[in-house]
Every structure is written in C-alpha cells, then in structure tokens.
Amino acid sequence: MSIAENIQKIEAEIAPNARLIAVTKTKPVEMLMEAYDAGFKRYGENKVQEMATKYEQMPKDIEWHLIGHLQTNKVKYIAPFVAMIHSVDSLKLLQEINKQAAKNNRVIDCLLQLFIAQEETKFGLSEEEAKDLLASAEFGQLKNVRIAGLMGMASNTEDEDQIRREFRGLKLFYDSLNLPLTELSMGMSSDYLIAVQEGSTLVRVGSAIFGSR
Prior knowledge:
The protein is of the alpha/beta class. It has helices at residues 3-14, 29-37, 48-57, 75-78, 91-103, 127-135, 137-140, 160-176, 192-197, 207-210, and strands spanning 19-23, 42-45, 63-66, 84-88, 108-114, 145-152, 183-186, 202-205.
C-alpha cells in the first residue's frame, strides 16, 4: 500500500475520536511530500534539528508536533512555528517554552508527559508531580503556553492487557484533573487501536505509514 493509502486506512480506523500524527523522524522530505500531496498536513518529529530543517524545506501550512524529549536549550529553534509540544516533563522546560513563545508573540500548546510505562528509559512526570506543577504559582504566571492535555507512552510489551491498563490509568488521571483539557496523546504504530479505545485523541504513528526504518 502507498503512504496515502496507509494514512487513509489509519484515519478510518481512529475516526471520529482521534486524529493522526504521522511520525516522520529519519524519513526524507520526499516521503513527507508524498503524504502532503495526498492532503495530509500533521507531522510529528522527535528531534528539534530535524524538525527545523524539514520546516524550512516544506510548505508552511503544515502542523508540526514535537513528540520527542526536548531540552531547554533547543526550544528557541522551534518556538516560531511548532503547533504542539507533546513532551513537557518539567516546570523548567515549560518556563523556557513560555519565554521563547513570548519572544515570537505566540501561545504554544503543550502536553504534560506522564510516566506510565514499566520501563526506566521513558521520560515523564508522576501524577503527583503533574498536579504540583499545575497548582504552582510559577505555572500560574506563564501566559504564553497552554496546557492542552496529557501524553503518555505505554510499555514496549506484547502484553495488551498491560498496555490497556497503562492507557486507562492515564485517561482516569486526565479526567480527574477537572481542567479544560482537550487532548490525550496516546498510542503508536503497535498500540494505537487500544489507545483510541481507551480515550486517545491523538495517535503518533510512523512505521505503519512509512514502513519500518
């Protein structure tokens, strides 16, 4: 199947509850343009440098999502154009995004990344840390960021019950916050269907669209 057909198939599977972000890390611009020419304009990158380079080379009506771990010193490179940052895991990072957004006269949508997996290699806040951040006076002063929701990555396991539990736990926490949140970013190529069943609004899919690296 072509890239366009893969996108159509996944969009049909997740509609009407979730939207697709095509994960384009390490993929050449030609592949992205194949998707773009088919009418698809929502892309997710893991690395700032790669996103900034592709932004320069591609049409300017694309919605760019930063989904990988973000270092504070890299925020300035994407602040002028990024649509959403999925991987906010500290107040310090949020303050830097706020600062760079203000310089660009923007309000940047952000998701708090929660640690829900059984693996030490993943980043993210605990539920307590997320609550403390949202309740802090420092957070209250940030005018150029908007917390649109939460993001989480399930364990890399074949155990679907465990994956479902992890997604469900994040959805329960999301609901418990009683905030005007709209986005729950859960699910990748291997588990996006479970994620959508458990309440995801954004799925991040790469290999199921572009083939494995």
